[in-house]
Amino acid sequence: MTKFLTDSDGMANSVLTRAQAAEGAVRRYHVMVKPIGSLCNLDCTYCYYLHKEQLLGSNSNFRMSDEVLETHIRQYIEGQDGDEVVFSWQGGEPTLLGLLFFEKVMALEQKYKRAGQRIENDLQTNGILLDDEWCRFLKTHRFLVGLSIDGPEELHNAYRRSKGGQPTFKKVFAASELLPVHNDTWNDGEEIGASDFIKRLVPAAIQVWPSGDAEISFGDGDLFWGHEVGVRYRGGVFTEAVVQG
Predict the structure, then answer these.
(1) What average pLDDT does range 64-81 have in this prediction?
(2) What is the 3-state secondary structure (H, E, C) of the chain?
């Protein structure tokens, strides 16, 4: 468990030193980073986050500055004692920042990591901008990639459309076919799913978020309502389903 101290401005920071920590305790915590805020190149009908850009009353592009990026990476690594530190990059759509931004991330992680410490990264993306160059980068740096797709084409296109209202399934499914060519560590984030469609994908794992009271059936008739269902998929066979609720 991480202990945070709060300053007079109400900002939490992990300034607990090793001397203050209980003997033998290991400090670990997890932060989901949104380096481009709520900005996205899609206009999904159910998205609760797109309007957040209006809250600051600013014309900012919401891009995380190089100074803030370096400070975050340094403090995040310094604030943990474990052998592994995991960075999670989400949005909005983080790939809008471009590869140069994430190349800086890799350099800064190497700059501040301690001897014997392992740094891992995961990236949640809608897949629209993924190409060979992106996929090679993600493979080289061992990213766990989450690809958001809403099931078969008719379902996906009903909910996940471009800013101009155009369907996006073909671009996203192309990314799902490109990722295994370069990167065997990726997840399918299935928002509105159908098991027959899932069998066409080849990710290392599948996470399913049923909508409302949706009923989902896997395997031998196991039914899950309104829970997060993690389904492990290996060699065309569902091998494990984990419910978090």
Answers:
(1) 95
(2) CCCCEECCCCCEECCCCCCCCCCCCCCCCCCEECCCCCCCCECCCCCCCHHHHHCCCCCCCCCCCHHHHHHHHHHHHHCCCCCEEEEEECCCCHHHHCHHHHHHHHHHHHHHCCCCCEEEEEEEECCCCCCHHHHHHHHHCCCEEEEEECCCHHHHHHHCEECCCCECHHHHHHHHHHHHHHCCCEEEEECCCCHHHHCCCCCCEEEECCCCCCEEEECCCEEEECCEEEEEEECCEEEEEEEEC
